Amino acid sequence: MTPVERSLMATTAALLAQGRLLDGLSRPLTLFALGSLLVAPLLAMPLSWSLLMLLVAIGGVGLVQAYFAFRVAFDAALFQALSAGDALNGLPGLDGALAALRLMPERKAGRLAEARARGAMRLLLFQASLIVLQVVLIVGGGLMWAV
Question: Helix, strand, or coil here: 104?
Answer without folding.
Answer: coil
